[in-house]
Specification:
globular, 4% strand, two-stranded antiparallel sheet
Length: 94
C-alpha cells in the first residue's frame, strides 16, 4: 500500500516535469520559425540551453529523409509516450 503511493507520487512528479519540458520544447519549435528572434540573448539562450540536448540526441542515429532530420521528431514522440505512461501511473485509481 505504501509502495503504491510512493510510485504514484513519483509518477505524478515525473509527469509534471516532463509536461513542463514538452511545453518548453514546443515554445522552442515555435520560436525557431521566426528568423528575427536571436537565440543568443535571454530568455532564448536559456531556452536553447535547456532544450538543446533533446534536439541533439540521436542526430547521428536517425537517418535523414529527403533532407529532413527526424531525430527531434522521434525524440518528441518518445517523450510524449513517456509522459502518457507516467500519466497512467500517476492518475490510476488505487
Amino acid at each position: 500500500m505504501i509502495l503504491e503511493h510512493i510510485i504514484q507520487i513519483f509518477s505524478l512528479i515525473s509527469w509534471f516535469i516532463l509536461n513542463l519540458y514538452l511545453l518548453l520544447l514546443e515554445i522552442r519549435l515555435l520560436t525557431q520559425w521566426f528568423l528575427n528572434i536571436n537565440p543568443y540573448f535571454e530568455p532564448f539562450l536559456t531556452l536553447w540551453g535547456l532544450t538543446n540536448p533533446m534536439f541533439q540526441f540521436g542526430r547521428k542515429l536517425y537517418p535523414k529523409v529527403f533532407g529532413f532530420e527526424l531525430g527531434y521528431i522521434v525524440n518528441f514522440k518518445l517523450l510524449s509516450m513517456l509522459v502518457n505512461f507516467f500519466e497512467l501511473l500517476a492518475f490510476a485509481q488505487i
